[in-house]
Amino acid sequence: MRPTAAIEDLFWKVRPIDLDEARRLSARFSLHPITARLLLQRGVGPSSVKGFLDPSTDLLNDPFLFREMKRATARILQAIERNEKILIYGDYDVDGMTGAALLVETFRLLGYPVDVYIPDRFEEGYGLHLPPLRRAREAGTALVITVDCGTTSHAEIKEAASFGLDIIIVDHHQLAGGAPPAVAFLNPEGPPQETPYPFRGLSSVGVAFKLAEGLFKGSGLSPLRLRPLLDLVALGTVADVAPLTEENRYFVSEGLRVIREGIRPGIAALLEIAGEDRASANEQTLGYCLAPRLNAAGRLYHAGEGVALLTAPSREKALPLAERLEAYNRERRRIQMRMWEEAERQVSEMRDADRHPLFVLASEGWHPGVVGIIASRLVERYRRPAIVIALSPEGIGRGSGRSVEGIDLHRSVSVCRALLEKFGGHAGAVGLMIRADRVDLFREGLVNVFSEIPSVETSETLWIDAEIKLEEVTFDFIRAIAPLAPFGPAHPEPVFLARNISLIGLQRELDRSVRFKVRDKKGWTFDVVGPGGMNLPWNDFVEGAAVDLAFAPEVWTWQGEPRIFLRLKRIRRVGAIEQRPEEQC
Q1: Domain map of the chain by residue range?
Q2: Is 526 helix (H, G, I), strand (E, B) or coil?
Q3: Beta strand ranges found along 454-560 (DSSP E)
Q4: Architecture of domain 61-327 in CATH?
Q5: Alpha-carbon Rg of the chain, whole angstroms?
Q6: Which of 176, 505, 506, 578 is the most exposed place for a label (fewest CB within 10 A)?
Q7: Percent of the chain with pLDDT over 70
Q8: How far is C-alpha 409 from the chain's CA centre?
Q9: What are the backbone dihedrals phi and psi of residue 43, each rounded to the nearest 5 degrees, phi first?
């Protein structure tokens, strides 16, 4: 039986709001009523309105609130004074690439050259590896600074110290036991017995930026000179699906301004090759245009090309690299399509698949660099955690997992870590290595773990910010929403509900996206667009059907003119019964 996600089975809820408080907030700050409502629904009260709508450096914490920041900056400045060789050791995802590029650029600003090493996804896999560390030491390197790895590499760090290599860890992944025996350990997770950094939502590139701030302060330089690096922080933060609150809100907001200014040749070139308008770049540009193209290098070939693009000194150097990444991304899409078709087939052939608390899928025909994308799509479509494993002919599986809000996948997989060769990650995503003959045991073990976890209602709930009429969706209305951007985890994009409107001219495209119009009884009509992969019973929606529509309004340029479109979030037939998941038959 194929799992269904019929929209009438979702439990739709309107976010609570005190309308009197919203009116007072609107009057006090001269805000559009919808702006005031959305702010309050996201926990932004009178004392924080101005800082939220105009993010500034006031949102940034002192970098020395990291307990070992003084130790890290002192060792780096000592290395510079002694003219010691420094190596930046990154990772092959966008967070690792942007973090490595940021530290390279930081040392450029300090006038000190450094080397970069990115491990090969296929030959080495994730994390610190002794062979490249030994080679670095033999080449004269005295200090290694990791980005997006190292938190769980206790043995490798200890061994590196034995042959004279100091290591500073810059990471955000969860700990497995105590802190690693590094010269300095910068991680917002931190050992539980220590006073934590005030904001635990930093990605690794965010932590790298805090290290850059610390270095500049320690060198008597103004951290404001680091502003041109915020494009890298914004890109890595969004790509790693970090919460867009507190410090991250400033990083992404200001980083997008840097991107629109075209300061970095590599990002400007990649946008140009992708056909995107740099001047209108937003958080979706980061997540759906730039990140996939950078990731394609690490997924299919080597992430070093992504770092080279991000640190390219000129457009002439950047364009050939951008063109290569564009070609890699096209190849990635072809591979992804084939893998997705098989993943769907495996799910459809499962017995009682609707009752599975998670999916663990594996195949010898899958590309290990694309398993994370397939896991994300499974989570989006079936609203449950998923782990996807690519099996090699040698019997080794490399897997990637994604979770839903409210379920800590890292903690769940940790229970079964004895079955794994390697394992790491955080609450929302994990990476692992496993022998092929253990996959079935691993799947059974995880199912048992998940059987003890209460169902998480938030993963099944569609949250509506306001019920409105189509006539209210105007350019002024959309302009009133804009100051709340950027949107993302922990600060979701506003979703609105229009009830009892007519569906007209449904078109289903080859990529499984949809287009149609909606019209209310007063004749107000809008075009609606929906992404591919939405698991909806479209055959049930006949011409003229009365529907309830959940949507996000957007302004697109159409034939040279601005025009309002409604981006589909959910749709249901009028009168459809809303059921909680546990009430479904």
Answers
A1: 7-17+460-583, 61-327, 350-453
A2: strand
A3: 461-464, 466-467, 496-508, 514-519, 525-530, 546-558
A4: Alpha-Beta Complex (3.90)
A5: 24
A6: 505
A7: 94
A8: 16
A9: 80, 15
